[in-house]
Design brief:
Layout (H helix, E strand, L loop, with lengths): L2 E3 H6 L1 H11 L1 E6 L2 E7 L7 H12 L2
Parallel strand pairs: 1-2
Antiparallel strand pairs: 2-3
């Protein structure tokens, strides 16, 4: 798991973007707590879209 502070992410965005593209995700920490996760598009999931597709399949 890769964790970067918000300040490091802001100052070195290109570096962390490359890490996301190679490792899949980077967690962003602010004030000692993980606040966000940066995920590559190829690894992301659209929960709402996927759930709507499932509902459509279940209809008779």
């Amino acid at each position: 798991m890769i964790i970067a502070t918000a300040t490091a992410m802001k100052n070195n965005f290109g570096k962390y973007l490359n890490l996301v593209l190679s490792n899949g995700e980077v967690y962003v920490e602010r004030h000692g707590k993980i606040r966000a996760k940066l995920v590559a598009v190829k690894n992301s999931r659209s929960y709402l879209s996927d759930e709507l597709k499932d509902l459509k399949r279940e209809r008779p």
